[in-house]
Design a protein that fits this description.
By secondary structure, the protein is mainly β. It is about 5% helix and about 50% strand. Pfam families: PapC_C, PapC_N, Usher.
């Protein structure tokens, strides 16, 4: 039974086939309309199929005007007299259940005795998507290999309505026959492991640099400035100062420098680091290759991240394994199991790199409406009422509820919140409203929702020189009720080096959301004293609707002098062993004391822009310098011009500054489209001007834009001017050009200054080896989900949901960036394909698991397309509406005005039967021959010809 259900569930993404009758009939009507020969008719009503499988009453009668058809014979249109009939066959339809769209699928309609209408057949996978309570159905029907479950087998009161014109199937099912699921729910039976495959994502960059310097020194705040005015390259939070005397590294504040022998040396402001006689010049070429490798086998996802670096000056290549993991879903627990290298969750405790095993709950497996935090709305309706939930005037939710108490527990999370306005519209015309407080901090969860993680492994810090300790970590969060979430965790190393315990609570109140937790740690170093301390963390957020003010996140943390995090303890122990010291005071430790972060935004409305403020303060124990940074910004637009203004300041105090040091920054930026409002791809002119106490003035102007049929080319050109007080000025020009192709992405860049020239080229993309072969992709996310599109002979069709990806000559393409555990629509744009190929559908749905490689087969029909103008031997035209049959007797279309018919046949032609009655005199046959063409030649136009029907 399970095997059958799995097979049926997997089949929901495949088989969007339609019989040739409805497909070609619809295509013929389209061609006739395009040629101006379509019939004049009253549109027929949709067909409603209920328990009795009867068409809707009151269907309009189709009427034709012979003045437009030009036919002298009476045409039999009885099959259309009672509306738009549903003829037997397969239809690719949008399924709506109780007015909500659930899927686009291929549905088979079977013939009904004594009726013009066919009835729909539902399989088990479709019932799951529709949310039907399958446990109520006859097991014999559900388990049948070729199950055809009719609407009256689901419920005697269920009905379906098919709109053939819009290809929409409306299904009405009583609530008692439906499962109660949160919005966004996707049945676990539809989650697809996919197929076995090998994956590789790559990124390559080659970099050439010619430099000339007259020496290097550190200035205000440790900024690296050459004596000739050139800026030394900055990477991440560290300044890399390269010179003939060796390479040096200073921290982000310029306080300490790591020398070649591994010592930390204090660096004073303005210190001269490297001063070779007469300066120096250098030329270097380097290259980088990053590989993300993957293998999917039986639900396991093996992943490995590798890097390769080559440098001309060093004349060596270095390969590094960043991490290797094996992951598998634990469906029952809605969790993931990972073995190998990774990072702890970083939600309760600070994140820690490890090598070992971890299990954690995966929020992606929850429905959209259960992820994040949103309050439960409770109320009472006196009648059959309509309930609306709004936030900041925006409608978030609407439902009809029965008299009595109601509960709405599937609201989608909306960032940091904003109070909810709930309005109850009673059937008697009365209206009531009330407010539900809604603010959120990251720790808040919905009532009844839990989040957990368990990790057992070894600290994986490559900077450690000695033993890396093993540790365990466990965390748990639980939504207790509508306003409170409790959470806690524990960290402990195996060798009694470190133990930490954390407990806290998050609450949602009318004045905002708060979270407070306390961590207690104890560290026992070998051969020295132990430290025991605590750390307190406080968070707050609030959105004030009336003023448009949002306290996005305000957090504060205080730690006493003996508190260490796990990372602090491990690094300190390693330094003690390196120095063979027995006392902590011989070891430099940067331990946090206070940390405050504040983000506030103020929205003044569409016309008056937005103001924001970011601020942070960090202070440390043991006399380490403290720092305060804050930034104020304003952004707005005037007509089509966007602009922003920023101002910031950094304050640092410490012994190296003999007190304190200030660094101020100011900036303005503008962006203006260089084209009219109707221009689709107008270039964008960008200008910015900044001032920094340490780096001086920098003015930049640039142009960016796209071109190409599919906007696959991007370009940018920039010119900048820098004036540094006491260090001179310089001008720099640069340009970039990139191409987003159907198989890869390419990028090239060049920049020039009086003191350096730099050029680079790069490429990125990926490949998937699957049962159908090897397919290239311009992008590949191994941690997401991937679809392997198969569309035979549809070369050039574009995967609309995946950038520039197109079907290759073998009929395959990669649909990247699918969302795991959600129904994804994957669409094909047939523009650019041969007219000899017809896609039976342009959209499929799939619900892949994380990291899965899912096959997506788009059925195609191949054959030369031709428009035939048919006349009879006596010169009379063939009646409009006559049936067109293939040699096997299958109806493939109908004759349009002027005796025109559209067919897709063999390479050289064939025979067709035209019938407008049962008598022999009301039938004739058309033999048509197509001109020969080169083997493999594809047509981009529809061929046309004349033929006689005998």
């Amino acid at each position: 039974m399970n095997a059958i259900r799995d097979k049926q569930a997997r089949a929901y993404q495949v088989g969007v086939r339609r019989s040739s009758l409805p497909r070609v009939h619809a295509l013929a009507r389209f061609v006739m309309v395009a040629l101006g020969t379509a019939p004049v008719a009253v549109r027929a009503a949709s067909s409603l199929v209920g328990p009795a499988l009867e068409p809707a009453s009151g269907a309009a009668v189709v009427e034709f005007s012979t003045a437009f058809t030009g036919a002298s014979q009476t045409i039999d249109v009885s099959r259309f007299e009672r509306g738009n009939p549903v003829l037997p066959g397969h239809y690719n339809v949008d399924i709506f259940v109780n007015d909500g769209r659930v899927a686009r699928k291929d549905i088979e309609f079977r013939a009904t005795q004594n009726s013009n209408d066919a009835y729909p057949c539902f399989d088990y996978a479709t019932l799951l998507q529709m949310g039907v309570e399958t446990g109520r159905l006859d097991p014999g029907v559900v388990n049948a290999q070729s199950a055809c479950i009719t609407i009256n087998q689901i419920s005697p009161d269920a009905m379906v309505r098919m709109d053939v014109g819009d290809l929409r199937l409306d299904v009405s099912i009583p609530q008692e026959a439906m499962l109660r699921h949160a919005r966004g729910y996707v049945s676990q039976d539809l989650w697809d492991h996919g197929e076995s495959a090998f994956l590789m994502g790559y990124s390559f960059n080659a970099y050439s640099l010619d430099q000339s310097y007259g020496g290097v020194r550190l200035t205000n705040g440790g900024s690296a400035i050459a004596y000739d005015g050139s800026r030394v390259q900055v990477q991440g939070a560290q300044y890399y100062l390269a010179g003939p005397g060796g390479s040096y590294v200073a921290d982000s504040m310029g306080n300490y420098m790591l020398t070649a022998d591994g010592r930390y040396v204090p660096v004073q402001r303005g210190t001269f680091v490297s001063a070779p006689s007469g300066g120096y010049s250098s030329h270097d070429i380097s290259a980088f290759l990053g590989l993300n490798l993957g293998m999917n086998v039986k639900g396991w996802r093996l992943r490995s991240q590798e890097t390769g670096q080559w440098d001309q000056r060093a004349a060596r290549t270095r390969w590094t394994n960043i991490n290797t993991t094996a992951t598998h879903d634990i469906t029952l627990w809605k969790a993931q199991l990972t073995i190998g290298d990774g990072y702890t969750q970083g939600i309760v405790f600070d994140t820690t790199p490890f090598r070992g095993i971890t299990m954690y709950s995966d929020d992606r497996m929850l429905p959209d409406s259960q992820q994040g935090y949103a309050p439960v709305v409770r109320g009472t309706a006196n009648t059959q009422a309509r309930v609306e939930v709004r936030q900041n005037g925006n409608l978030l939710y609407q439902a009809t509820v029965a008299p009595g108490s109601f509960v709405i527990d599937d609201l989608y999370a909306t960032g940091y919140g904003g109070d909810l306005t709930v309005t109850v519209f009673e059937a008697d015309g009365s209206v009531r409203s009330f407010l539900v407080p809604y603010s959120a901090v990251p720790m808040l969860l919905r009532p009844g929702i839990g989040r957990w993680s368990i990790t057992d492994g070894q600290v994986h810090n490559t900077a450690l020189r000695h033993d890396k300790p093993y540790f365990v970590e466990g965390t748990y969060q639980r939504g207790i009720n509508n306003w409170m979430t409790l959470y806690g965790g524990v960290q402990s190393t195996y060798l009694n080096l470190y133990h930490a315990y954390l407990g806290g609570a998050a609450v949602n109140t009318p004045v905002g959301a708060f979270a407070l937790d306390v961590t207690r740690s104890r560290t026992s170093f070998q051969g020295t004293e132990s430290l025991s301390g605590y750390s307190t963390r406080f968070s707050y957020s609030k959105a004030i609707q009336s003023s448009g003010t949002t306290f996005a996140l305000a957090s504060y943390r205080y730690s006493n002098g003996n508190f260490l995090s796990l990372a602090d303890a491990v690094v300190t122990q390693d330094m003690l062993e390196s120095q063979q010291a027995g006392r902590l005071d011989t070891v430099h430790m940067m331990r946090a004391r206070e940390r405050l972060n504040v983000t506030v935004s103020q929205n003044f409305g569409n016309r008056y822009g937005q103001l924001y403020f970011n601020g942070s303060r960090n202070s440390y124990w043991n006399g380490m310098p403290s720092a305060t940074t804050y930034q104020l910004g304003y952004s707005n637009s005037y007509r089509r011009v966007n602009f922003g203004i920023t101002a910031g300041r950094t304050y640092t105090t410490g012994p190296m500054y003999n007190g304190s040091h200030y660094d101020s920054q100011f900036g303005i930026n503008l962006s203006v489209p260089l084209g009219g409002p109707s221009s689709r791809r107008a270039p964008m002119l960008q200008f910015s001007a900044t001032y920094d106490d340490a780096l001086g003035n920098n003015d930049r102007v640039g142009v960016t834009g796209t071109f190409g049929k599919d906007s696959q080319f991007n370009y940018g050109a920039n010119a900048s001017y820098t004036d540094q007080s006491g260090a001179g000025s310089r001008s720099t020009a640069s340009g970039t050009l990139s191409w987003q192709g159907p198989r890869t992405n390419l990028n090239a860049g060049y920049s020039y200054s009086g003191h350096y020239q730099q050029a680079s080229i790069s490429a990125s993309g990926g490949l998937v080896a699957h049962p159908g072969g090897l397919t290239l992709s311009p992008q590949l996310d191994l941690n997401g989900a991937i679809g392997v599109v198969e569309a035979r002979d549809a070369k050039g069709a574009r995967v609309s949901s995946s950038g520039q990806a197109k079907v290759d000559a073998r009929g395959y393409a990669i649909a990247a960036n699918l969302t795991p555990y959600r129904l994804n629509d994957v669409t094909l744009d047939p523009t650019g394909t041969s007219n000899d190929v017809e896609l039976q559908t342009t959209r499929l749905q799939t619900a892949p698991r994380a990291g899965a490689v899912v096959p997506l087969k788009f059925e195609t029909s191949s054959g030369r397309a031709v428009l035939i103008r048919v006349s009879r031997v006596d010169g009379e035209g063939v009646p409009f509406g006559a049936q067109v049959l293939d040699p096997e007797g299958r109806e493939i279309g109908a004759v349009g005005q002027g005796g025109q018919l559209f067919v897709r046949g063999g390479e050289r032609g064939g025979e067709l039967t035209v019938r407008w009655g049962d008598e022999e005199a009301r039938q004739c046959r058309v033999n048509y021959q197509l001109p020969e063409r080169d083997k493999g030649e594809k047509s981009l136009t529809v061929e046309s010809m004349d033929a006689v029907c005998r």
